[in-house]
Amino acid sequence: MMFLLKIFKWIVKSIRSIGRDSDPQMPAVKSEQAGSRRSSSSEWQKNGPDDWQKNNTMKAELQAVQSATKMMELQRVAQDGGLKLLFQRAEHFELAAKEMHSPTVSTAISELLEVVGALRDSRECVNKAFNELTELTKDLATMAISDQTANESLQTPATRTSTVDPCTNTPCWWEEPANQQIANIVPGASSEQGTRKRTEVTE
Q: Where is this region: Disordered (predicted)?
């Protein structure tokens, strides 16, 4: 009884010490951190809420399918061990059924062999369905990666680099305005255009 009382006092003392050591500012800090995470998440969602939600949904569904597929594979491997042993022993059952003189035992063995045959057919169907499911999961993963890459390429702004002639340190001809390109090809064309404009204004 005294031992239990000491344990109770020790528990009460520990709870009180935890209450004194707790920092009253921790809830505020956690609230600020949660607020910053919510704000950053909302800002990020404003940039592309539809794509963000679509990608998250696809990732969640793909992860669920992959997890279920992995669990099914583990169960299938575990069952295969027992089924293979059962199929091997079924041959001995067939021989025993022929040697048995008891009709009851012979009938029971025959029924058991029918069940074994049904299990063998079912196992083949399960393996076929599992292989198809595995291929579909791989296709879904490939599609998810392709969609994510396409969305990232659409959201990333295209950059235009200016090409500079290394000899003259001036922009190449395809970087120059159209009038300047004409002037380079046909000397005096730019000055003629300028004179023509000034004449039209004077008139």
A: 20-54
Tokens in use for 86?
């059962």
How many Å apart are CA 68 and CA 131, to the nearest integer? Answer: 13
Tens-binned pLDDT, residue by residue, of the chain (203 aa) = 454 455 555 555 655 554 454 444 444 444 555 555 554 455 445 555 566 677 777 778 778 878 888 888 888 888 888 888 888 888 788 777 777 777 887 888 888 888 888 888 888 888 888 888 888 888 777 776 776 665 555 555 544 444 555 566 665 554 455 455 445 544 554 444 555 544 454 45
What six digits make up the tokens of 57? 């949904």
pTM of the predicted structure, to 2 decimals = 0.40
CB atoms under 10 Å from CB of 28, counted, come to 10
Task: Give the tokens for residue 93.
Answer: 């059952």
Residues in the chain, total: 203
Give residues with Cβ within 8 angstroms of 203, minimum separation 6.
none
Query: Is the Cβ–Cβ distance between 139 and 128 less than 8 Å?
Result: no
Phi, psi (rounded to 5 degrees) for 165: -70, 120
Question: Given the structure tokens 């990608």, which residue do they identify?
Answer: 55
Element (H, E) at 170: strand 170-171
DSSP string, 125-155: HHHHHHHHHHHHHHHHHHHHHHHHHHHHHHH
Radius of gyration of the chain, Cα coordinates, nearest whole angstrom: 40
Q: At what angle do helices 26-47 and 49-99 cross, to 10 degrees?
A: 90
